[in-house]
Amino acid sequence: MQEIPREIVDEVLLIDDYSKDETVHIGQRLGLRIFLHEKNFGYGRNQKTCYAEALHTSADVIVILHPDC
C-alpha cells in the first residue's frame, strides 16, 4: 500500500482470484473493499472484475496494479 498515493486515491479495491496466501486478510486489515472469485479464473478475468467493480463507483480514473507490483 505504500506505493499507492492515498492523498489522491479515493478508493482501493482488492480483487482476489482465489489466492491461497494472506491477501484477503491483509486487505481486510487495511480496510479495502474486497471482491472474491470462487475459483482461479486467471489475470484477464481479474482485470474484468476490477474494471466492472470500479465502474460501479463512478470512477473517473481506474488504475490497476499487478499484485506483484
**In angstroms, what separates the terminal alpha carbons?**
10 Å
Number of helices: 2
Query: Shape, please?
Result: globular
Work out the strand percent.
5-15%
The major sheet is characterized as:
2 strands, parallel
Structural class: alpha+beta
Which residues form runs of ≥5 with pLDDT under 50?
none
What value does the average pLDDT take?
88
The helix-strand sequence is EHEH
Description:
By secondary structure, this protein is α+β, with helices and mostly antiparallel strands. It has one domain (1-69). The chain has helices spanning 23-29, 43-55, and strands at 13-16, 33-36. The chain is globular.
Write the topology of this structure.
Layout: E1 13-16, H1 23-29, E2 33-36, H2 43-55
Parallel strand pairs: 1-2
Describe what is shown at a glance.
The chain has helices spanning 23-29, 43-55; strands spanning 13-16, 33-36. The mean pLDDT is 88.
Features:
69 residues, alpha+beta, two-stranded parallel ribbon, 2 helices, globular
